[in-house]
Specification:
The protein is an alpha+beta fold. It has a single domain, classed as Sandwich (Protocatechuate 3,4-Dioxygenase, subunit A), CATH 2.60.130.10. It is built from eight helices and nine strands. The strands form two sheets. Strands 1, 2, 5, 8 and 9 form a five-stranded mixed beta sheet that branches. A four-stranded antiparallel beta sheet has the order 4-3-6-7. Strand 1 and strand 2 form a beta hairpin. It is globular, with a radius of gyration of 18 Å.
Length: 311
């Protein structure tokens, strides 16, 4: 499932970048020197399996409102046995309570933005020793700077669309996001020697990867989000190899309001009201219905976010 988005995304807290979030089409043109277009959309060909995974080729889940669960996207009576099994695995962890959409609805492909750090436009953190880690709150290598912010634990459950949405064990995820002031390591002024809030994890037998991080900040032009790339294997991830999917996690309105009202997020508190899910140039086409995380927690105890990622 591919989406196209209009240019936009100015960031007053960051140095201006003319190509900020110009969309997937622009990213593909910049990635062609390193990645095959056919390989990049390798998972996209699995859309042909939609009729097999969803009885009658139904795409009813595509019209579900943001924040709905499988009860609205499709009943278990019309879900194939493998998909039902995957749903059970996906909700086994307390941090993953968002039920899967109907089998065949892949995570929307999105822009990696101008700050991926994957070698496509400059810095390549993926080939650095130490990038494979669960806790991404500090830099590694020449710096050990640790960022401050409200704790956030993110769990993604990877599902193999081509094989009935069974857990995609052995795949890998590279995740990255801005700090609480909306700035990105490796790119923003003064942060070129920092690589915090970036890391790689390998999916376990349940197709799950978990990152311990901080709640990202808000900057003008974008709804609060976390970027991620899904790789076929850990070897591909750490060699910046074949990518199965590039997408983003949308954080919830309620959690954002609570976090940005807390100490340290003053810049985010000013920026957050300026962009809605509908006006966001990435999530705006469908309100982030397939990318909106299920979240729980508090500022004092920290938050958890979970999302199922069908590729």
């Amino acid at each position: 499932m591919t989406t196209t988005h209009a240019p936009g995304g100015q960031q007053p807290q960051q140095e201006p970048h003319p190509d900020h979030d110009r969309g997937l089409e622009f990213d593909l043109s910049t990635l062609m020197t390193r990645r095959s277009l056919g390989m990049f959309f390798g998972a996209g060909t699995a859309a042909a399996a939609l009729a097999a995974c969803t009885p009658g080729g139904s795409t009813a889940g595509a019209s579900s409102p943001a924040g709905t669960t499988s009860a609205a996207a499709g009943s278990t009576a019309t879900t194939t046995a493998p998909a039902a099994s995957a749903a059970a695995s996906a909700t086994a962890s307390p941090t993953v309570t968002r039920a899967i959409a109907e089998c065949g609805v892949e995570i929307p492909q999105e822009t990696a933005g101008p700050y991926p750090g994957d070698g496509s436009n400059g810095p390549n953190v993926l080939e650095a020793s130490g990038v494979v880690r669960q806790d991404i709150t500090s830099s590694f290598g020449t710096s050990t700077t640790k960022v401050d912010g409200v704790p956030l634990t993110v769990t993604l459950t990877l599902l193999d669309n081509a094989n009935g949405c069974v857990p995609l064990a052995g795949a890998a995820v590279y995740a990255w996001h801005c700090d609480r002031d909306g700035k990105y390591s490796l790119y923003d002024s003064g942060l070129d020697n920092e690589n915090y809030l970036r890391g790689v994890q390998e999916a376990d037998a349940n197709g799950q990867v978990t990152f311990k991080t901080i709640y990202p900040g808000a900057y003008n032009g974008r709804w609060p989000h976390i970027h991620f790339e899904v790789f076929e294997s850990m070897n591909n991830a750490t060699a910046a190899g074949q990518v199965l999917a590039v997408s983003q996690i949308a954080l919830t309105d309620a959690a954002c309001k609570e976090v940005y009202a807390s100490s340290g997020y003053e810049t985010s508190a000013r920026n957050f009201p300026n962009t809605t899910l509908k006006s966001d140039n990435v999530f705006g086409d469908d309100g982030g219905v397939y990318q909106l995380a299920t979240m729980s927690g508090s500022v004092q105890a920290g938050y958890t976010a979970g999302l199922n990622v069908t590729v």
